[in-house]
Amino acid sequence: MDTVQAVSMSDRGITEGGFVSSQYNNLATVRDAFLKRAREASRITIPTLIPESGATYNTEYHTPYQSIGARGVNNLASKMLMALLPPNSPFFRLTIDDFDLANLIGEDQRGAVEEGLARIERAALAEIESEAMRVPIFEALKHLIVGGNALLHLPTKGGMMRIFHLNSYVTRRDPSGNILKIIVKENLNGKTLPEELQKYINVPDSETPAKNYELYTCIHRTPKRYEIYQEIQGNRIEESYGQYPLDQLPWIPLRFNRIDNEDYGRGFVEEYIGDLKSVEALSQAVVEGSAAAAKVLFLVKPNGTTKLRTLADSPNGAIVQGDANDVSTLQLQKSTDFRVANEMLQYLTNRLQIAFLMNSSVERQAERVTAEEIRYKAQELEMALGGVYSVLSQELQVPLVKQLLNRLTKQGKMPKFPKNSVKPEIVTGIEALGRGQDLNKLNTFLQYLQPLGQDVIAREMNVGDYIDRLGASLGIDTGGLIKSPEQKAMEQQQAEQQRQQMMQQEMMKNVVEGSAPAVTKEMVAGMGNMDPEQLQESMQQMQQQMPQ
């Protein structure tokens, strides 16, 4: 069990009574209406996504006559994943309050702070890649498109992200959409049941523990926190009790389209179910009609002179006795009807392609995509889906960022900042490019400074801070690449020492060549490798040898 703070049974303060299984069944009556619509949408798009109750590995699923539904769902889910979690680029940025920045290190160090925050962003991105979070999130997006609901669980102590389908959890929300209760139902096999749970199951001596057991995980909200516990066979598991702050719940219930006073969301497919059903019916009619039209039968008059066997057994080009009027062909003459059906089918297909963004003008297969492509996809999603992208940014991205930062804090990778001073910022719509926007602003700012001249820019601009901000906006770790202030100070000191040494050597050379005796010239010749103190002593000796 993943918990933030363990709570004993005597201190847990849980007021909800009764078995969790009973609570689950009561809440399932509200969920079943949404689940029924989700299964209907799944049947016409991807039947295996949300199967009927009791489906197993040998269940024969319905095979749609069209593929536009499945292709549309996969295409839209891919574009949403690209916009929400762009590859090789953080989908969020960390901002620090200006007052806290001034109190901590000063406003002139903003570049170094920006670089530090960018480093945290890259660590969060690395966490996503190392834990392969894109796989369950992509599956969750398909569930959102088809069924409108999905539940994600990101353990705070690390581990793989899990997704729960609508048929395995129930939830209840307040009118504002805040989560009041989540109950997850899992089926566990007795042989693989964790050892700490074995003592909570009642297995008669005549039975084996190899059967499946229902494990319920209940999360409910109190005024100040979320409390969590588990139950199996009516027994509450002592070790499972725990608490989460209100803003750090690792269970993320997602909705595609939200409707006021409804606990669950509505899927995208539900809005186009009419077109999909029409395409399904027309596709079935065209397929079956084409098969019937392709069948050709030969009719022979019963009283004619042409013999059936002679006609059937004769090879191509053979000469046989008979009357051509005795033989006729029977074929379905429905070409006009097929043309009308195909035209209507093409019309509906084009409408669905537009709805599922399958006619995009930007479609490039590449390992890395540009910021402009990400910007276009975000804009396309925002315009086509009526703000769904913005909703998901708040219901998926924000909780995900908070959990990632919580993970980094527990791993010791998050520096300590004053409470509430550093906040994650998800910029939605066409601006959802993280620090990529800062790069454009920096370049624009530098362009406006060009008319002032290079001398003014060099005198007024802090180049080191600019470089730090530039590296942060590009997502580059400048550690070891850009010289530190200590390195620059040391190099400046060394350069100053070399300059002074060369000036002294040049001065002594001019003096000696004019008036010094031969022995002094020999001394000067050996001064090339002297340090400044030795050089000073030699100069004093030479002055004593010079004629008065």
A few lines on this structure:
This protein has 548 residues and is of the alpha+beta class. The protein has helices at 20-44, 68-84, 98-104, 110-130, 134-146, 195-198, 268-271, 273-293, 308-313, 335-355, 371-385, 388-410, 436-449, 454-460, 463-474, 485-515, 518-525, 532-545; strands spanning 5-6, 93-96, 149-153, 162-164, 169-173, 179-189, 212-221, 225-232, 235-245, 251-255, 297-300, 327-330, 422-425. Helix 13 (436-449) packs antiparallel against helix 15 (463-474).
Strand-helix topology:
Elements: E1 5-6, H1 20-44, H2 68-84, E2 93-96, H3 98-104, H4 110-130, H5 134-146, E3 149-153, E4 162-164, E5 169-173, E6 179-189, H6 195-198, E7 212-221, E8 225-232, E9 235-245, E10 251-255, H7 268-271, H8 273-293, E11 297-300, H9 308-313, E12 327-330, H10 335-355, H11 371-385, H12 388-410, E13 422-425, H13 436-449, H14 454-460, H15 463-474, H16 485-515, H17 518-525, H18 532-545
Antiparallel strand pairs: 1-9, 2-13, 3-4, 3-10, 5-6, 6-7, 7-8, 8-9, 11-12
Distance between the ends: 95 Å
**Which class best fits the helix and strand makeup?**
alpha+beta
Strand content: 5-15%
Mind describing the biggest β-sheet? 6 strands, antiparallel
Strand order of the largest sheet: 1-9-8-7-6-5
Q: Quick check: average pLDDT?
A: 77
Descriptive key words:
548 residues; alpha+beta; 6-stranded antiparallel β-sheet; 3-stranded antiparallel β-sheet; extended
Provide a descriptive summary of the structure in words.
Mean pLDDT is 77; it is low at 3-17 and 428-435. The chain is of the alpha+beta class and 548 residues long. The protein is built from 18 helices and 13 strands. Among the domains are: 5-85 and 133-271, no CATH class; 273-307 and 323-355, no CATH class; 491-545. A hairpin with an 8-residue loop joins strand 3 (149-153) and strand 4. Strands 1-9-8-7-6-5 form a six-stranded antiparallel sheet, covered by helices on one side. The chain has a three-stranded antiparallel sheet with strand order 4-3-10, with helices on one face.
